Amino acid sequence: MQNIVIAPSILSADFARLGEEVENVLKAGSDWVHFDVMDNHYVPNLTIGPMVCQALRDYGIEAPIDVHLMVEPVDRIIPDFAKAGATYISFHPEASKHVDRTIGLIKEHGCKAGVVLNPATPVSVLEYIIDKVDLVLLMSVNPGFGGQSFIPSTLRKCQQVRQLIDETGRDIRLEIDGGVKIDNIEEIAACGVDTFVAGSAIFNTDDYQATVTQMKANAEK
Ligand code: DX5
Ligand code: ZN
Q1: Which of 38, 60, 142, 164 is the most exposed place for a label (fewest CB within 10 A)?
Q2: Which residues on neighbouring strands pair with residue 66, listed in sequence order?
Q3: Which residues are noted in the entry as a divalent metal cation-binding (predicted)?
Q4: Which residues surround ligand 2, an ion (CB under 5 A)?
Q5: For residue 176, what are the domain limits?
Q6: What is the best residue among 39, 92, 141, 181 to mutate for testing ligand 1's pocket, by most ligand atoms within 8 Å of CB?
Q7: Number of folded domains in the chain?
C-alpha cells in the first residue's frame, strides 16, 4: 500500500481567492490539488479549464495537480491541460470513443493517466487498460457537484479494484472522490484506497490544517 495522499477538491474553494485558497490548503498539509473540470454536457455543471490550471502554476503552486475531466469529448482538451501544468489527467471512459487511445495521448503529453469509474460503472471496464494507467479514480457520488453523500456500494468496488491493482504489481494509485469526510475516511482506507479527494469536508471548515491532519490520521489508522 502506498503513502496516503489528501487531494482537496477546489470545487468547494472560494474562487474569488483561488490562489490563496490553494496555497493555504497545501500549507495545511494536503498533498495534491484536485481540479474538477465540468462542461455542462457530460455533467450538468460548468467549471474551469486549462487557463485556471496555468494561473495556479503561474501563482507558484508546485504541488501535483490532479485534473479530473468530466467533459465529452475528452481528447482535444488533453494537450492544453498538459501545457498548463497538469500532473495527472483522469477521464471517464464513457466520454471517450477510444479509451486506449486517450490513455496513450495523456502519456504522450508527459502526464500520468487516470480512469474514472462512476458509481454504476462496473470494474470490468479496467480489464484491458489496468496495465497502462497510473491511477484509478472511483466516484463515490454521481459526478457534477460537491457536497453529496458517499454511496456505500463504492466500498466493495474499492476492495475489488485494490485486488486488481495488487495483481498487476504496478505502482497505480487508487483514488476516491465524493462524500469523503473525517468520519468515513478510515473505513474507506481499510478498503484499499490510498488517495482521497475531499472538497466540502475541507473547504467548509475554518481550520484547514486541523481537518487535513485529522483526515490523514484517520486514513492511516
Ligand atoms: C464531483 C467532483 C468532486 C467533488 C467532491 O463531481 O468530482 O471532486 O468536488 O466534493 P465533496 O468532497 O464535497 O463530495
Ligand atoms: Zn473530482
Answers
A1: 60
A2: 34, 88
A3: 34, 36, 68, 177
A4: 36, 68, 177
A5: 5-220
A6: 141
A7: 1
Question: What positions carry a catalytic annotation?
Answer: 36, 177
The pLDDT, as a whole number, for residue 1 is: 60
Instruction: Measure 141 CA to ligand 1 centroid, in angstroms.
Output: 8
Here the CATH number for the domain that contains residue 207 is 3.20.20.70
In percent, how much of the chain has pLDDT > 70?
100
Give 56-79 pLDDT, tens digit per residue.
999 999 999 999 999 999 999 999
CA distance 213 to 60: 23
Average predicted confidence (pLDDT) for the chain: 98
Secondary structure in 3-state letters for the chain:
CCCCEEEEEHHHCCHHHHHHHHHHHHHCCCCCEEEEEEECCCCCCECCCHHHHHHHHHHCCCCCEEEEEECCCCHHHHHHHHHCCCCEEEECHHHCCCHHHHHHHHHHCCCEEEEEECCCCCHHHHCCCCCCCCEEEEECCCCCCCCCCCCCCHHHHHHHHHHHHHHHCCCCEEEEECCCCCCCHHHHHHCCCCEEEECHHHHCCCCHHHHHHHHHHHHHC
Ligand 2 geometric centre to CA of 25 (Å): 16
For the segment 7-25, the average pLDDT, to the nearest whole number, is 98
